[in-house]
Amino acid sequence: MMQMTRYCPTCNRSSNDVKFIGEFCEVCVADKIMKTLRDYAVVESCKSCKRIRTSEGYMPVSKNSLKDAIRHSLGTKCNISVISFDESSAAVRFSCQEEMGMVEFEKKIRIETKRTMCMDCYRRTSGYYEAVVQLRGDNGKADMIMKKLINFIEVRGAFVSRIDELSNGYNIYISDKKITASFFQLNKLKPKRSFTLYGVKRGNKVYRNAYLLRFDQS
Fold it and tell me: Are the C-beta atoms of residues 123 and 141 closer than 8 Å to each other?
């Protein structure tokens, strides 16, 4: 049995030409949804590292991170994907589940950048640290361990906020004490450890860790 040709009550398009979502053609349903969406999204960008804020924190700019930021800004329940983008706009595909079916369409979204500072950059500029590594003794061995430590720390997303060069070694101030501790464990080094109380966070005492590692003179 042949289906009767339907016509959209809004635009008069025929069901022979376009898909229908309920009583209306997909073009008119898409237009209706598009009118509920702003044509711009506010994206928070760290003025120091240029990463953008997403639901998972600050991330490098990419199609995936921008998709998350735009969807959050628009407050839409539709799934979205970023087709292309530049500094001022993005071409976005929307996939919206309606009661009678899925509607897909593309829309250009203007990007309005809100300059902020992520916590990592704030801590870096303020000299934040959770651990200090004290290297003492043989300069050659101390230099080798320092370079290895800095690379280990930075590859894992932490940072060195300050290095003090002393007459008998170095003090290296590091942003993450857990990553610092794992460096010594993985390299089978056994520094002398000490702890200093430096604050209270949510009712819990917070300590800074100090690691003293001495090298015999060659």
Answer: no
Helical segments of the chain, H only:
26-35, 63-74, 119-126, 139-155, 177-186
Write down how long the chain is: 218
Q: Where are the domains of the chain?
A: 37-118, 127-215
pLDDT tens for the 218 residues of the chain, in order: 457 888 999 999 998 899 998 889 999 999 999 999 999 999 999 999 999 999 999 999 999 999 999 999 999 989 999 999 998 999 999 999 887 788 999 999 999 999 999 998 998 888 899 999 999 988 888 999 999 999 999 999 899 999 999 988 999 999 999 999 999 999 999 999 999 888 777 777 888 999 999 987 65
